[in-house]
Amino acid sequence: MYFCVKLKSFVFCLALSLAAVCGGIFLAARGFESAAVTAAANAAEEEVFLPVIMYHSLLKDPSRAGDYVLSPEVFKADMQYLMDNGYTTVFISDVVDYVENGTELPDKPVAVTFDDGYYNVMTYAYPFMKENGLKGVMNVVGTYTDLSVEQDEHNPAYSSLTWDEITELYESGVFEIGNHTYDMHSMEGRKGCKKLYGESYEDYRKSMFDDVAMLQGMLRDKSGTTPVTFAYPFGYISDESVPILHEMGFKALLTCYEKPNYISREDTGCLLSINRYNRPSGVSTEEFMKKLLRK
Q: What per-residue confidence (pLDDT) applies to 2?
């Protein structure tokens, strides 16, 4: 009888021990699972969705409307939509600061970019943006500006910004200036600044420095700004261009791929291919925004 009691006690204690061990394993597993979920949630929180719009020319004449020409009223409707839906415009340099320095971005950031440096953007978009506290990025082509300086008549229908006007936009705090090449915005010879077939790396690097770095110097000397953003002409990209542009001091490279962007802190790679949605005519603000803001 005594042996049976002892045996029963031993079995009972063993069962309690096993239960405790299994319970500990279960709780530990639940703990690891919870930690994994928390880590995933934190990673998701650190990844910022950044829609980027690519505008070109703004003209009132409806006969000029097309893939790269939009009416000023539609542009204003686009901006009003973003403001009404809680989006805040940011500079690309703000995005760079977020990645490199941890500087906070607004809850719903959006970047508004303008390629080619048309005078009509200053005529029609700039006053509205200044009045409403909006930010934009103006990517200028050096040869267009030099030609505009030489013109006697300064007309929104065809003129580009002068160096003084670029300075005004930059100093206003409404626009930051981006580099869109000095004289590579062309499809003659090479496609934009894409590396030619059979061209050596050394020759390609020299061509890029002769053109893009020259515009950097001109912008610094004539308008007081040294861009950290480069926009590829026509979206033509060569892998070899990335280290060359980085050597020139560029932190962010703008493409023409119509895809969403997800920006992460300390991931400088996400800055080297910032996608943009071109804004054409013939599409309502609501329809365009539905595509742009889709995550």
A: 39
For the stretch 142-173, pLDDT in tens is 999 999 887 768 899 999 999 999 999 999 99
Strands 262-263, 88-89: pairing kind:
unpaired
Q: Under a CB-based contact definition with an 8 Å cutoff, are residues 275 and 261 in contact?
A: yes
Summarize the confidence of residues 123-127 as an average pLDDT: 98
Strands (E), the chain: 48-49, 52-55, 57-58, 69-70, 88-89, 109-116, 136-140, 175-179, 229-231, 252-254, 262-263, 277-278
Please report, for the chain, the start and end positions of each structural domain, with discontinuous segments joined by +.
1-46, 49-292
- What is the per-residue DSSP string for 181-246? -SS---SSSSSTTPPPTT--HHHHHHHHIIIIIHHHHHHHHHHS---SEEE-GGG---TTHHHHHH
Give ∠ CA 237-239-243 in degrees, rounded to 5.
110
* Ramachandran class of 282: left when φ > 0, alpha when ψ lies in -120 to 50, beta otherwise: left
Mean pLDDT, all residues of the chain = 88
Average pLDDT over residues 87-105: 98
Residue 38 pLDDT: 38
CA angle centred on 56, ends 51 and 62, rounded to 5°: 115
Helix axes 142-150, 214-223, angle to 10 degrees: 50
Which token pair is 81? Answer: 């939509």
DSSP 8-state symbol, 253: E
Q: CA-based angle 192:197:203, to the nearest 5?
A: 75
Strand partners, 140: 116, 179
Mean pLDDT, residues 258-287: 97
Helix (H, G, I), strand (E, B) or coil at 258: coil
| Tokens coding 180 | 């869109």
Lowest mean pLDDT among 33-42, 123-132, 164-173, 182-191: 33-42
Please identify, in words, the CATH class of the domain defined by 49-292: alpha beta
Count CB neighbours of 101 within 10 A. Answer: 9
Using the structure block, give the residue that is written with the tokens 């006690």.
9
